[in-house]
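Attaching the record inline, Q. Sequence:
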Amino acid sequence: MQNPLVDFRHSEIVAIFQECPLFGGVSESDLDAIAAITAVKSIRKGDYLFHEGTPVHGFYVVYTGAVKVHRVSFAGKEQVLHVYRPHESFGEEALISDLGYAADACPVEDSVLLMVQKPEFLSLLRREPELALCMLRSMSQHLSNLVELMDDLTLKDVKTRLANWLLQQCPNPESYEPYRIKLPMTKRVLAAELGTVSETFSRTVAKFRKQRLITVEGNIFTLLCPIKLAQLFGAAVRAQSPYGASHICSHAA
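Structure, as predicted:
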């Protein structure tokens, strides 16, 4: 169940927008105008924010938590398109569509979201061309993410996709030092984000452990020797992650 929050000050909403890549370069006066047409909502894990094809009421910026945007086939198979985390925006591309939202969205953890309301924002866009350019940049990035996701799903196997993801969480993939990665989501969500199912994901992790590439304790993955993984999956090091995963990493003791 979604509940509006009434204790957010206008200045707090502006400060959140200043951290959002969508609004990079937008003047403070424009951010003030956008904040004035923004509703703040809380939503619990597993409650749907919207479904594919439902009417568009606005687009969203994540304040806290994480939201999974995904499609589900007629056979019930889910494909995660992206998991959006704090300061990321989603749903902008649906603002000018008559077909409704292009996918389903639900939080993978309790979340607080800012919803910029559609009618008012479209009116603002007509008056402020610079904002329209921001929207184009954002939609271009979303398209780039989808193209890279398609490339991963069609041209790379699960082992390569997982290695790719792990290496991109490590600031120095050529290091010989162990490196710890705290997963920013459940293993099931990561599996879906990588385009596979939990069972295949678990088997792939087990193979990496058997090869002494990683160790796993709960939601902590330790790369025992990042360069060894990089040498096995060299192309993954050079690719830019389409997943946008936030993470907490540290050198292993």
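The domain at 3-154 is CATH 2.60.120.10 (Jelly Rolls). The chain has two domains: 3-154, 156-251.

More tomorrow.
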